[in-house]
Design goal:
The complex is a heterodimer of chains A (437) and B (119). By secondary structure, chain A is an alpha+beta fold. Chain A is built from twelve helices and twelve strands. Chain B is globular. Classes of the chains: A alpha+beta (437), B alpha/beta (119).
Chain lengths: 437, 119
C-alpha cells in the first residue's frame, strides 16, 4: 500500500472534519450518517489500516475536540465511553467484513479467469440475464445482457432439459459447434451460474476413444491372424508326433514345440483380455454349470498338460456345487492360479480346494509350498504387468493375476492371497454362486 | 461308404493339414475356401456327414453360410462344428452348430469329433 493511497483513503474523513462547522444541522446532529461512509471509503480506497485510523480519529475528535454535547456526549460521562466503544467496534467490524468480502471476491475473479470459467446471473422475475465476458463467449451470445429465453436458445434443444431443478452441477451442453459445462443454482428470484468451454476436452475424448477403438480392432485382427498359422502349426506338429514312434528322440522335441504353440496362443489371449479390461468391456457369459465338474476338469487338464506322473497337483472338491458362471473364464482363472502355483511351487505339492462357504459363495483355494510372498507385495501382484518374481527368471507378460482379478470382479467376487515368506502361498477366490441382482 | 467331411476354411494351410489329419484315420474330405464355395459344393450334391466351419472368412462368412444353408436342399443335415479364431463365441448360435472349437486345436480333438459323427 503506497503512502499516497493511504493519504487518499484518509481524505474523506479529513474533509468532513474540516467542514464540520459548516455541515447542515441534521447531519451534524447524527454524525454516524457521515462517519460510517468515511470509514467505508477508507477501507475501499486503502484497506484495513486507514479504516481503523479513520474510525479511531473520528471517535476521538467527537469526544475531545468537537461539540462534546453531540452524539457521544461528554468524555467524562460513562455512557459516552460506551457509545464511543460501540462506534469503534461496529465500524472496525464492518471494515473487516468489507475487506474479507472484497478479498474473496478478488480471489474468485482470479480463479474464474485462470480456469476460464464464465459467470452469469439471471433474474427469474424479469427474465434478464447478466453475463461476464467469458460467459458471453461460452454461450456465443452477442450481448452481455440477453434474456433468459435468448440464452436457452443458444443451447442445443436436446440438452436444455439438463438445466432444470433448483441446482444443476456440471451439465455438459452443446452450444452451436462447441461444448460447455454449465452449473447453476436457483434461489428465486435469482439464478446464479457458471459456464466453461470444454470443446477441446470433448475433442480429446473423442480422439482417445477413436484411438482405443483402432487399437482394439487391430489387436482383434492381429490375434485372429496370429491364431490361424498357429492352428496349422499345431496340427502339423501333432500329426508328425503321431507318425513318429513315442520312443523316437525327436518326438520329445515335437512335444515341447507343441507346448510352445500353446503358450503363444495363451499370450495372444492375454493381450486381448488386457485390451478388453482397459476398455472396461471385460464381460462374462454366465451359464448354469456344475462348478465342481468344471474345477475338477481344469485340474485334470492341467495334470495332463504338465505330465500327470511328475506333477504334484491334487484336488479336494466338494461335489455337486452348481453356479451361474462363465465356464471358459472360470476355467481360465483356475488354470492360471494352478499354473502359477506349479511355476513358483518348487516342485512341492499344490492343492486345489473348492468348497461352499457360509453365505452362499463358493471358495476356491490354490495352495502351494513355494517361497511365499511378502505382505507388501500382496496388492502389487494383482496389478497390470506385475510379476510374482521380480528377478525376471520367469517368462510371461505379467498379466496372469491381473486377468484373474478381472474375471473374479466381473463375476462379482473377490480374490486375495494369504502368504508368509518361506511358508508357501494360498490364493483364494470367493465367488457368488448366482449372478448379483 | 462313409460320408466325407466338408472342411470350410480360407487358410489353405489349415485346409490341407486338416485333410491330412482326417485322412490319417481313413476319413474322406472335401475342402472349400469360404461359405459361398461350401454352398456351391452342397448344391452340386456333395453330401457331408460333418462340416468343419471357419467363422471369419471372406466372400461368405461361417455365420452367413449357416444362415443361407436353408437355400440348399439337403438329404441329411450334417452336424456343424465351428473352428474359430475369434476370442469369444457369440451369445446366440444356430442350433445346427453342435460344437464350437477355438483355434488352435489339437488333432485328437478334431479326430474325436470325426469319430463321434462318422461311425
Amino acid at each position: 500500500m503506497s503512502a499516497g493511497r493511504t493519504l487518499l483513503a484518509l481524505l474523506p474523513a479529513a474533509l468532513v472534519m474540516a467542514s464540520w462547522d459548516f455541515l447542515p444541522a441534521p447531519i451534524a446532529g447524527a454524525p454516524a450518517a457521515v462517519f460510517y461512509p468515511c470509514v467505508f471509503a477508507a477501507i475501499l480506497i486503502g484497506g484495513i489500516p486507514p479504516a481503523l485510523l479513520v474510525t479511531v480519529g473520528l471517535a476521538a475528535s467527537q469526544v475531545f475536540f468537537i461539540q462534546p454535547q453531540f452524539f457521544f456526549g461528554p468524555a467524562t460521562d460513562p455512557k459516552s465511553i460506551v457509545r464511543v466503544t460501540m462506534f469503534i467496534a461496529t465500524a472496525s467490524f464492518s471494515a473487516f467484513l468489507i475487506d474479507s468480502q472484497r478479498k474473496s471476491r478478488e480471489h474468485l475473479v482470479l480463479a474464474l479467469r485462470a480456469a476460464e470459467i464464465g459467470a452469469w446471473e439471471a433474474n427469474t422475475t424479469t427474465g434478464r440475464v447478466k453475463l461476464d465476458a467469458q460467459a458471453a463467449r461460452c454461450f456465443g451470445s452477442a450481448t452481455m445482457r440477453p434474456t433468459f429465453a435468448d440464452l436457452m436458445e443458444c443451447i442445443h434443444p436436446d440438452d436444455r432439459a439438463q438445466l432444470s431443478g433448483r441446482e444443476t452441477v456440471g451439465a455438459e451442453l452443446r452450444v452451436g459447434e462447441r461444448w460447455v459445462r454449465a452449473s447453476m443454482r436457483l434461489s428465486p428470484p435469482r439464478m446464479l451460474g457458471t459456464v466453461m468451454d470444454i470443446t477441446a476436452k470433448k475433442q480429446m475424448e473423442d480422439e482417445l476413444r477413436h484411438a482405443v477403438k483402432v487399437r482394439d480392432d487391430f489387436l482383434s485382427l492381429a490375434s485372429h491372424e496370429l491364431r490361424t498359422p498357429l492352428t496349422a502349426l499345431k496340427l502339423q506338429l501333432q500329426l508328425l508326433m503321431k507318425q513318429l514312434q513315442a520312443t523316437d528322440p525327436l518326438s520329445s522335441l515335437l512335444r515341447r514345440s507343441d507346448a510352445q504353440v500353446d503358450r503363444l496362443a495363451n499370450l495372444i489371449g492375454d493381450v486381448l483380455d488386457l485390451s478388453r479390461a482397459t476398455r472396461g468391456s471385460f464381460t462374462v457369459t454366465r451359464r448354469d454349470i456344475d462348478a465342481s465338474d468344471l474345477v475338477q476338469a481344469t485340474v485334470a487338464s492341467m495334470l495332463e498338460m504338465a505330465g500327470a506322473a511328475t506333477t504334484p497337483l491334487s484336488a479336494q472338491i466338494e461335489p455337486g456345487i452348481r453356479a451361474a458362471w462363465d465356464p471358459a473364464r472360470i476355467g481360465q482363472l483356475v488354470a492360471n492360479l494352478i499354473g502359477n502355483a506349479l511355476k513358483y511351487g518348487d516342485g512341492a505339492p499344490v492343492v486345489v480346494t473348492l468348497t461352499k462357504a457360509v453365505g452362499g459363495d463358493a471358495l476356491i483355494v490354490v495352495r502351494d509350498q513355494g517361497p511365499g510372498i511378502a505382505l507388501s507385495e500382496h496388492e502389487r501382484i494383482f496389478g497390470r504387468f506385475e510379476r510374482l518374481d521380480l528377478s525376471n527368471t520367469q517368462a510371461g507378460l505379467g498379466l496372469g493375476l491381473f486377468i484373474c482379478r478381472e474375471i473374479v470382479q466381473a463375476h462379482g467376487g473377490r480374490i486375495w492371497v494369504d502368504s508368509v515368506p518361506g511358508k508357501g502361498a494360498a490364493f483364494s477366490v470367493s465367488l457368488p454362486l448366482l449372478a448379483p441382482g | 461308404m462313409r460320408k466325407p467331411i466338408l472342411i470350410v476354411d480360407d487358410a489353405p494351410d489349415i485346409r490341407r493339414t486338416l485333410k491330412m489329419v482326417f485322412e490319417s484315420e481313413g476319413f474322406e474330405t472335401v475342402e472349400v475356401a469360404n461359405g459361398r464355395e461350401a454352398l456351391d459344393a452342397l448344391a452340386r450334391g456333395v453330401d457331408p456327414g460333418l462340416i468343419i466351419l471357419d467363422w471369419m472368412m471372406p466372400v461368405l462368412s461361417g455365420e452367413e453360410f449357416v444362415e443361407q444353408l436353408d437355400s440348399v436342399k439337403l438329404p441329411f443335415e450334417p452336424p456343424i462344428y465351428v473352428l474359430s479364431a475369434a476370442e469369444r463365441q457369440p451369445e446366440r448360435i444356430d442350433p445346427r452348430i453342435v460344437g464350437w472349437l477355438k483355434k488352435p486345436v489339437g488333432i485328437e480333438e478334431m479326430l474325436q469329433v470325426a469319430r463321434r459323427h462318422l461311425r
